[in-house]
Amino acid sequence: MSSKTSISVSIKKIFKRNQEFTNICKICNMEFNDPERTKRHMLRAHSKPKKEK
Hints:
This protein is an all-alpha fold. It has helices at residues 2-14, 35-46.
C-alpha cells in the first residue's frame, strides 16, 4: 500500500496545478513538437509504476 502512496505523491509532483509544459520532458529529456504532446507523454510514460521482474 505504501508503494501506491509514493507513486501518487510522485505523480502529484510531476503534474502540479499551474505547471506549464514545455517541449522537453523533464524526466527523460525527450523533445516533442507540442506541449500537449509532452503532457500526454508524461501521463503515459511516467505515471505508471515500473514493472518488477
